[in-house]
Q: What sequence folds into this?
């Protein structure tokens, strides 16, 4: 009996240590499984508020020197998806973007961070705006923990180049996915 109890306690301790570890995680107070008119783009036939969601992350891996955020729609009928938001050079001591930080004119993003060119052709957040009647699109928002303080890029850098630099400097990443569709009018 004592041997069984000791074994059980040892198993619980090992399981708690192995499976109870905190992982790099991204969450949002504004965004659940569905995007809303608040996040929807204002333009291209869409009439949303174009407000980027609040985002926060926790448990970055050791050695993280900066963060980046992207928002990507793989369902866009372009052959290559659609980049809605690219923010990089977020300092390592930051773990949140406030609501509407993607509006570059409001200066709500962390000091030193850069928001570069999206597929809308401008810097900052560009919300969901799938073609009418095209069905649900998924919007993947990803935070990257990076091994460098700066990617060495500018606000004029396109998404493909940002993605290349992210790929070469990522220690870990975490994502949330939201869906959105526009009905035919």
A:
């Amino acid at each position: 009996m004592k041997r069984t109890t000791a074994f059980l306690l040892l198993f619980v301790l090992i399981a708690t240590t192995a499976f109870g570890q905190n992982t790099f995680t991204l969450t949002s107070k504004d965004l659940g499984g569905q995007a809303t008119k608040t996040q929807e783009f204002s333009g291209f036939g869409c009439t949303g508020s174009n407000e980027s969601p609040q985002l926060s992350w926790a448990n970055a891996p050791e050695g993280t020197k900066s963060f980046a955020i992207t928002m990507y729609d793989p369902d866009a009928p372009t052959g290559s998806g659609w980049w809605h938001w690219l923010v990089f050079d977020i300092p390592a001591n930051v773990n949140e973007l406030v609501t509407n930080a993607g509006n570059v004119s409001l200066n709500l993003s962390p000091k030193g961070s850069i928001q570069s060119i999206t597929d809308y052709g401008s810097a900052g957040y560009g919300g969901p705006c799938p073609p009418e009647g095209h069905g649900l699109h998924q919007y993947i928002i990803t935070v990257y923990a990076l091994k460098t303080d700066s990617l060495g890029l500018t606000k004029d850098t396109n998404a493909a180049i940002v993605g290349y630099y992210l790929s070469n400097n990522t220690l870990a990443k975490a994502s949330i996915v939201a869906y959105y569709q526009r009905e035919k009018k």
The CA atoms of residues 31 and 53 lie 6 Å apart.
